[in-house]
Each structure stands twice: as structure tokens, then as C-alpha cells.
Amino acid sequence: MSANKIFLRYYPPGLAVNYRTAKGNERLRHFDLLDLDTKTNVEPLADRILLQTLAEAEEDQIHTDSEKNPPLRPLSGSVARSQNTFSALKLALEKLQKKLREPVKKKFYLHKCHNSHILPLTNVSFDRSGDRCLTGSYDRTCHVINTQNAEVEHILTGHDNVVFSVGFNHPYCDKIVTGSFDGTAKVWSSSSGQCLATFYGHTAELVAAEFHPMNANSIATASMDGTARIYDVETSHELQQLTHHGAEVIAARYNRDGQMLLTGSFDHTAAIWDVRSKSLSHQLRGHNAELSNCIWNFSGSLIATGSLDNTARIWDVRKLDQELYLAAKHSDEVLDVSFDAAGRLLATCSSDCTARVWKLEGSSEPEMQSLMAGHADEVSKVCFSPSGCMLLTASADNTARLWLTESGQCSQVLAGHEGEVFSCAYSYSGDAILTASKDNTCRFWR
Questions:
Q1: What is the residue-averaged pLDDT of the chain?
Q2: Of 138, 141, 125, 222, which Cα lies nearest the Cα of 423?
Q3: Three-state SS at 219
Q4: How far apart, in whole angstroms, are the C-alpha atoms of residue 290 and residue 304?
Q5: Phi (first) and psi of residue 233, to 5 degrees
Q6: pLDDT number for residue 23
Q7: Are 386 and 423 in contact (CB under 8 A)?
Q8: Strands 312-316 and 325-327, how do they pair?
């Protein structure tokens, strides 16, 4: 085996080894390193990755040789090459660890206040590089903003009502999807701003839309008409209509490989749909009020649901008859939930003006790691920094705040908005923040 390249994924930690077998075949072996932290001993981890890659390479050679029935032989130069690969793996793991050592006292400064919208903003999203962002608004438009020069690149017009949902097709980010209260979704070219397709069928406000995570060939939508739908991006045709919910559907999220879709509803339940068989796989019951959000963790092994019943519930996909954990210490409605990148922590925020971080390992109920108290009004949005060291919250008190995840201490107040901060987002690298407000502006912080 000869390793050609090692590709890194910083958040959550992971890598892929591109290697050439003795037969000259190229292979790419992926490793999720969700347990990697700054204290991990990387030498045994590098050794384990190397051994697994070597085993796969040998299995490939044995399979190839057995088809042609020649005598088996050792991989050419495997010892020397393995040592070189081990050294490269160790360096790669140390680089991933360095990325996880995010400076927890880093301060952000206002870079630009964008006032290109004429009505309140709804939601925002970064592209993968952080060079561009999207803003949706009550003014029926989505703006594509260059974060480097703070210029508006495109104003996406065509919706007849509020643009509520905005998003890129990660990681390529050459397309944009928007969802509107006019009941339609649209897909746009991010480079030209041209509308590529419009998707019809919903009979009420469309509140969520996202691309299939693997190929962006389809989008999933959620609507106040009580349905979720899946559309083909190329043809604009409706592929599936998911109609099991008994009330408004407020979220539709693909899992990591796009084979399952998670929906959340005001009927107090979430549902898991098998996209391949076009069938309802399971319905998550337990909440006694409307859901505010539902999400997968990175690996797709856990689901979190937040509800207006003051609780969040965490579900293990291997055992869905009852929640795995119940987070029930908020004294008012839970308005948002968010996993950290590795999926080991859950953040919740509430109308009780607080956010909380929960550990999801090693006990029969979630351990509350920290309480973020300091906002003067409800906290409507919460998200982790890429490394998980910081938590970002958006509040109706006109501010966003940064908190130390481990202690709950407020690190910084992002002030200046003159209306409720409705949405917030970190860039993928963690060096930029967006806040969007009902004061018609979006603030970009570096």
C-alpha cells in the first residue's frame, strides 16, 4: 500500500486516506474521529488508522488475486511505506487537534452592518468558505452578500411573500435554495443569481427547504399545510409528498447520507421517513405541545427535538419507542436545539431567557454542563462554534451573546441591533459570525 494523500475535515474531526494498492488501484478510506479532542494520544490512533487501512488494502489485493488465482505476495514495500504513512497520519491528527484548540477568549468586532433589506430579516446562512452569506427577509427577497468586500452580489427576486428559509448546497455552494410564505421554493445559481427552478404544490407558507446532502439533486420542504415534500431539482417535479402529520410541519432535515428525512410538526411529534422506500419509518411521540425544531447529530445516531412543552428530548435511532434522554430544566418554551459538531453536546434555548448545554454520554439522563443566563428576553436561536468551545445565542433583547460552553460564562455581548435578533450563524472556520434582526439589518462580525 502506498498512501498518496491525506484529506482533513476539521469540524467535526475526520480524515480520508487516499492510497494505491499493490495492483495499482486507488482507494479512499474515510475515518470519522468524533472522539478526538485536545488530550487524545495521537500515536495509537494513527497506528489504528494505519492498520485498518492496511487491512483493507490487503483484503482488496487478496480479492483481486483470488479472481486470477496467482500466488499471494506481500504488499510491495509495505513496511517502509507504512512508516511514512504513520508519520503523515500523526502530523495530520496533530493538525486536527490544533484546530480544536480554539481560543476561547477570542473577541469578535463589527465588520459591516448590511442595511440592504427594507423589511425585517428572517434567516441567514454562510457558504462553506465563509466568503458569501445569504439573508432572507420579509421584503420577499434573498440577498447574496460577499463577506470579503461587504458588497451585495445578487438580489434574488421572484417570491410573492416572505423569504423565510435560505441555504446553500454544501459543500459546493454553487446553488441556493429559498423557501417562502408564498408556498413555493426556488433554486438559484449562486454565481449568476439566476432562478433555475420553482417548486409548486404546497398550499400554505413554506418554512423550511434544504438540499439533499450528497448530490443536491433534490430538495426537501416543510410547510404549514401539514406536509413535507421532496422535489427533483433538475425537472422541478414532485417526487414524494409526506402527509402523515396532523398539523403544520415546521422542519424537514435529511440525515448525513440523505437516505432518511426527519420532519417536525405542531402535532407534537417528529417523524422519520425512508426516502428510498418512500415510507414512514417511525414517529417520535412523547412531547405534549408543538415542536419548535428537530435535528440529527452528525453521525445520524441521535435526534433532538425541542418543544413548547418546556422540554427537549434526545432519541437514539436504534430504539425509538421512547426518548433516550429528557432535558426538562427550562421553565418556559424550548425554542431551539443544536448539536455540537461531534454530536456529544446539545444546546437548548428558551423563552425563559436562558440557554443550556447538556452532556449526552454516560448516564441515564443528560447532565447539564452549563447554564447561560444573562439575556433580558427570550432566546430564540442557539448554535455552537465549529470546535464547540463557544456557544452563540440570539435573543429578543436585541443582542446576540457568546458564551464559554464549559462554564456558561458570557464572553461577549454582540450589541448594536435595534430590534429582535432573529437568527445567527457561525462560519465553517469559526472566524466570522452573522446576526440578523427585525431592525432590517444583518451584522457581520469578525
A1: 92
A2: 125
A3: strand
A4: 14
A5: -70, -35
A6: 74
A7: no
A8: antiparallel
| Cell 495530520, residue located | 92
Scanning the structure block, which residue is given the C-alpha cell 474521529?
33
Which sign, positive or negative, has the C-alpha torsion 240, 246, 247, 249?
negative
Per-position DSSP letters for 106-139, written without gaps between them: ----EEEEE---SS-EEEEEE-TTSSEEEEEETT
Query: Which residue's entry shows cell 453536546?
Result: 345
Give Cα 293 distance to the centre of its chain. 13
Helices 78-100 and 42-68 pack at an angle, to 10 degrees, of: 140
Rounded to 10 degrees, the C-alpha dihedral 93/95/98/99 comes to: -100
Q: Where do we find the cell 468524533?
A: 34
Give residue 25's pLDDT band: very low, low, confident or very high (50, 70, 90).
confident
Single-letter code of the amino acid located at 223: S
What long-range pairs does 146-152 form, CB within 8 A, spacing at least 24?
A: 147/111, 147/427, 147/432, 147/444, 150/111, 150/112, 150/114, 150/444, 152/114, 152/116
Radius of gyration, alpha carbons of the chain: 23
CA–CA separation, 251 vs 264, rounded Å? 5
Residue 266 Cα to chain centre, angstroms: 22
DSSP track, 398-445: S-EEEEETTT--EEEEE---SS-EEEEEE-TTSS-EEEEETTS-EEEE
Instruction: Determine the Cα–Cα distance for residues 36 and 138; give it in Å rounded to an integer.
Output: 42
pTM of the model: 0.93
**What distance in Å separates the CA atoms of residue 157 and residue 11, rounded to the nearest whole number?**
34
Helix (H) or strand (E) holding 70: none
Task: Please choose, from the candidates 11, 6, 5, the residue with its C-alpha nearest in 3D space to the C-alpha of residue 36.
Answer: 11
pLDDT digits (tens, 9 = 90+) for 294-346: 999 999 999 999 999 999 999 999 999 889 999 999 999 999 999 999 999 99
DSSP string, 339-375: E-TTSSEEEEEETTSEEEEEE-SSSSS-EEEEEEE--
- Write 347-352 long-range contacts (CB < 8 A, 24+): 347/382, 347/383, 347/384, 347/391, 348/306, 348/312, 348/382, 349/379, 349/380, 349/381, 349/382, 349/393, 350/310, 350/378, 350/379, 351/378, 351/379, 352/378
